[in-house]
DNA sequence: GCCCTTAATTGGA
DNA sequence: GTGCTCCAATTAAGGGC
């Protein structure tokens, strides 16, 4: 019944104008929707939206059926539960914090208008013909808003000026604004370039005692700003604000007075926030809106209330909070989107009062987490502690393009994406085990396909090895028809945590960095290795690396993934060995990477012997080796077209991040402190505050299964390699006998030989470990099998192998102790425009 | 059949 | 001519016991 209420328009709720935005009240919706509809109709996008809409309608139907089956008894019981929980929540209601949400008004558009006066009185938007990110208030009167494609906006407003994004500029302005934020709350939480939460409780406490002089701000503040910007901005400000925001109250009333040179702000929360907005306007010539409330949920709603260029406060009184919530449409609450809105509307719920009334029903129709969230909302509860985002859980890149049906082209694009993603991952020093491929066909249908590897990856080759297999399955599944794509994306997730990385890395890094210097020394080491090796015996074993290793072919990688040639990328003795060598020159004393004992004045042989002993004793506790190959996909491993792999190989050689002297330093030393490209998190230290209420449910992560954490005996046979390599060096080029398996190796390549020995050693250690540690489950079986297989398998590809070795070296992360937690922000629009800036679809 | 894990999808910002 | 990135929650499916 309710679902028919809106009649035909109901079918179009996804396409129709979303006027849930400041500056869009009282528009002629029907007229605007008609234009949007006419422009969209018949397109593939439209068809897909219709389909999705119908899916939602089906969900609603199901829900209504379920509702019809609910008995009075059930409802009564549900109500009891709701009441009980309500009581508990009420008891723990926290009103003591003063939370502020600040939001710049039409941010990107405002920046562009500030810098280009001709735009001031025109309807304009920032973005492109395919997508807009912001519009000014002028344009909003036409129904033009963010997240609307430019070509539709043009239909709504033919005179609309579309300005391309200037991301650097927004970032710079954002940095200026954040400087001000940090004065009110050093731990403020940026949500995007134009938005942040602050907890000003402490600030207000101090502010009470401040003399007036500390609360006085002058109107001409040329010192802090950019002088050039300033003069222009100053002269424009008086005109700018009225044009932008016709009837809005000014953040600084005395500003308009010609003689007002300074303004004194009070000590209340309102005054502090007004002061903050005043300073933002002085510094950037842009206005901001703010909400002040006892929690984040309310503050966010409040900042929208008097937008633009206004603020609103909910005082910390339960009664007032409840009063405020009563009439609030649920859609205004962050987290309630158009689907939830529609589902609730079907139950007759539009505002929060109704939400509250129907809570028992909701508890029977929605999941626990969902209705708990509804309950929090209806009670006006939210998080009272500003916490920076936690560690990121995934990283991805995706691209939209014109229809692409050629498989070769698709593989090539996939590789490009992997390349970009690898760079991003390495910039942050991340490695993940799950690779996900995302595809959107020309009908706008989205598919994701994931594959979890046995080891964490971060290089282009490793990611592509998995991604291309996923792609192949999809291509084959529609063959002989081609896949007609309009978007492809690659994501890496399942990052190995600091915990998991710890054991080995701490010891090795500790060993390499005994002098206490930071990661730079490791880089230096790596560089020195190359150099020293060339100097000492210009022949060898590193030399081929610098030339050939850069060009692994796709087929090599496909081997990698098929389980025929996969070994640990992580503990690469062949790499560590030379590093050790150099280290002894650089560092005065040595630390055993296994037991952490410091050893002074020992020669390498003695040191190696020590490690040998140590390793025998404590191999179990060390880092996983992931000897196991990724799941077999034999039949999937056919090669992508040669031409594509070749062309890409060339590209990859020219800027592979891991095979030159400079890049490793990027992945080691840059990542964790102040890298953020978006200008975020310049402040490396954040204090932790406990959440009191309104917190999100956190599902505690399970520890690694037994097989993961224990069966990867440390196959860090680094030390033994010393001997092996030396031997190899002596007999370079001739036929070699493996010191482990005693089999002659018909290769004249030292690196390859080293690799063989490496594997043999790994097998030895594993077998030894297995004998002394009866299996807990059978989970370590595959690993064992795989090692055995590897030892027999001799069709290794030396280029790839060497490449991996270097990759390993290049991407070794910092020891955990040196790490500053990486915290992520999600700049949704920001990221989009950054990556989209250079390309036209 | 339950518990756990992974994969895939969805909704939201 | 309708975007990019990330997260949390939900659902589906498969393996182990």
From TrEMBL:
Principal subcellular localization: nucleus
* EC top class named in words: transferase
Its cofactor is:
Mg(2+); Mn(2+)
Q: Which Pfam families match?
A: IMS (PF00817), IMS_C (PF11799), IMS_HHH (PF11798)
Q: Which GO terms describe its cellular component?
A: nucleus
Reaction catalysed?
A: DNA(n) + a 2'-deoxyribonucleoside 5'-triphosphate = DNA(n+1) + diphosphate
User: From start to end residue, where is composition biased (Basic and acidic residues)?
Assistant: 227-240, 623-637
Q: Name one GO molecular function term.
A: DNA-directed DNA polymerase activity
Query: Where do Low complexity bias regions lie?
Result: 643-652, 792-803
Q: Does the keyword Transferase apply?
A: yes
Ranges for domain UBZ4-type come to: 735-765
Q: What is its EC number?
A: 2.7.7.7
Stretches with biased composition (Polar residues): 555-570
Keyword list (alphabetical) reads: Coiled coil, DNA damage, DNA repair, DNA replication, DNA synthesis, DNA-binding, DNA-directed DNA polymerase, Magnesium, Metal-binding, Mutator protein, Nucleotidyltransferase, Nucleus, Repeat, Schiff base, Transferase, Zinc, Zinc-finger
Q: Which HAMAP family match?
A: DNApol_IV
Family to which the UniProt record says this protein belongs: Belongs to the DNA polymerase type-Y family.
Q: What does this protein do?
A: DNA polymerase specifically involved in DNA repair. Plays an important role in translesion synthesis, where the normal high-fidelity DNA polymerases cannot proceed and DNA synthesis stalls. Depending on the context, it inserts the correct base, but causes frequent base transitions, transversions and frameshifts. Lacks 3'-5' proofreading exonuclease activity. Forms a Schiff base with 5'-deoxyribose phosphate at abasic sites, but does not have lyase activity.
| Name under which the protein is recorded | DNA polymerase kappa
What is the scientific name of the source organism?
Answer: Cyprinus carpio (Common carp)
């Amino acid at each position: 019944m309710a679902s028919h209420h809106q009649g035909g328009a109901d079918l179009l709720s996804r396409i129709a104008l979303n006027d849930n935005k400041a500056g869009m009240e009282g528009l002629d919706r029907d007229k605007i929707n008609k234009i949007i509809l006419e422009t969209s109709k018949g397109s593939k996008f439209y068809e897909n939206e219709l389909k999705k809409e119908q899916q939602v309608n089906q969900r609603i139907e199901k829900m209504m059926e379920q509702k019809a089956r609910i008995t009075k008894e059930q409802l009564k019981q549900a109500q009891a539960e709701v009441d009980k929980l309500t009581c508990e929540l009420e008891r723990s209601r926290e009103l003591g914090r003063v939370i502020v949400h600040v939001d710049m008004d039409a941010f990107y558009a405002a920046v562009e208008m500030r810098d280009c006066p001709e735009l001031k009185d025109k309807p304009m938007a920032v973005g492109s013909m395919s997508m807009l990110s912001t519009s000014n208030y002028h344009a909003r009167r036409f129904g033009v808003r963010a997240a609307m494609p430019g070509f539709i906006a043009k239909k709504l407003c033919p005179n609309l000026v579309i300005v391309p994004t200037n991301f650097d500029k927004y970032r710079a302005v954002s940095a200026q604004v954040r400087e001000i934020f940090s004065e009110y709350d050093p731990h403020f939480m940026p949500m995007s370039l134009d938005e942040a939460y602050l907890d000003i409780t402490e600030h207000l406490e101090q502010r009470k005692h401040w003399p007036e002089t500390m609360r006085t701000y002058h109107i001409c503040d040329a010192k802090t700003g950019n002088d050039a910007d300033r003069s222009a901005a100053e002269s424009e400000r008086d005109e700018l604000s009225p044009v932008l925001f016709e009837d809005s109250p000014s953040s600084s009333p005395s500003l308009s007075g010609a003689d007002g040179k300074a303004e004194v702000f009070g000590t209340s929360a309102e005054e502090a926030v007004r002061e903050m907005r005043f300073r933002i306007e002085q510094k950037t010539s842009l206005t901001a809106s703010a909400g002040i409330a006892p929690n984040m949920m309310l503050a966010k709603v409040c900042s929208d209330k008097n937008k633009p260029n206004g603020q609103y406060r909910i005082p910390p009184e339960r009664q007032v909070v409840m009063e405020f919530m009563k009439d609030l449409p649920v859609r205004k609450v962050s987290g309630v989107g158009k689907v939830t809105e529609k589902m609730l509307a079907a139950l007759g719920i539009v505002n929060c009062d109704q939400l509250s009334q129907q809570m028992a029903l909701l508890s029977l129709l929605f999941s626990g987490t969902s209705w708990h969230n509804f309950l929090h909302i209806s009670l006006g509860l939210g998080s009272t502690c500003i916490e920076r985002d936690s560690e990121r859980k995934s990283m991805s890149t995706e691209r939209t393009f014109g229809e692409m049906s050629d498989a070769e082209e698709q593989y090539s694009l996939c590789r490009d994406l992997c390349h970009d993603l690898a760079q991003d991952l390495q910039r942050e020093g991340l490695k993940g085990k799950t690779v996900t491929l995302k595809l959107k066909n020309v009908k706008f249908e989205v598919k994701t396909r994931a594959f979890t590897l046995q080891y964490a990856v971060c290089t282009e080759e490793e990611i592509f090895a998995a991604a291309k297999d996923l792609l192949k399955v999809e291509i084959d599944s529609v063959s002989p028809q081609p896949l007609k794509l309009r978007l492809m994306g690659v994501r890496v997730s399942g990052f190995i945590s600091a915990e998991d990385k710890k054991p080995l890395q701490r010891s090795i890094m500790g060993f390499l960095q005994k002098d206490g210097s930071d990661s730079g020394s490791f880089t230096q080491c790596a560089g020195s290795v190359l150099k020293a090796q060339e100097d000492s015996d210009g022949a060898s074993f590193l030399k081929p690396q610098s030339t050939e290793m850069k060009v692994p072919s796709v087929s090599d990688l496909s081997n990698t993934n098929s389980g025929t040639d996969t070994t640990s990328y992580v503990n690469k003795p062949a790499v560590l060995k030379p590093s050790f060598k150099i280290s002894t020159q650089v560092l005065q004393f040595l630390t055993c990477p296994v037991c952490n004992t410091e050893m002074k004045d020992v020669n390498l042989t003695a040191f190696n012997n020590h490690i040998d002993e140590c390793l025998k004793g404590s191999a179990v506790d060390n880092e996983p080796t992931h000897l196991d190959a990724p799941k077999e996909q034999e039949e999937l491993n056919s090669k992508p077209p040669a031409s594509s792999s070749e062309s890409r190989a060339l590209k990859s050689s020219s800027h592979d991040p891991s095979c030159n002297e400079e890049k490793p330093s990027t992945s080691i030393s840059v990542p964790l402190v102040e890298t953020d490209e978006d200008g975020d998190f310049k402040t490396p230290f954040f204090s932790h505050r406990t959440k009191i209420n309104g917190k999100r449910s956190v599902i505690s992560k399970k520890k690694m299964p037994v097989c993961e954490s224990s069966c990867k005996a440390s196959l860090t046979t680094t030390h033994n390699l010393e001997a092996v390599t030396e031997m190899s060096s002596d007999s370079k080029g001739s036929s070699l006998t493996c010191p482990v398996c005693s089999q002659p190796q018909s290769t004249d390549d030292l690196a390859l030989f080293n690799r063989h020995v490496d594997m043999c050693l790994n097998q030895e250690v594993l077998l030894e470990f297995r004998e002394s540690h009866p299996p807990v489950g059978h989970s370590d079986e595959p690993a064992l099998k795989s090692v055995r297989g590897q030892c027999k398998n001799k069709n290794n590809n030396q280029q790839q192998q060497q490449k991996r070795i270097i990759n390993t070296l290049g991407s070794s992360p910092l020891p955990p102790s040196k790490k500053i937690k990486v915290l992520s922000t999600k700049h949704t629009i920001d990221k989009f425009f950054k990556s989209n800036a250079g390309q036209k679809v």
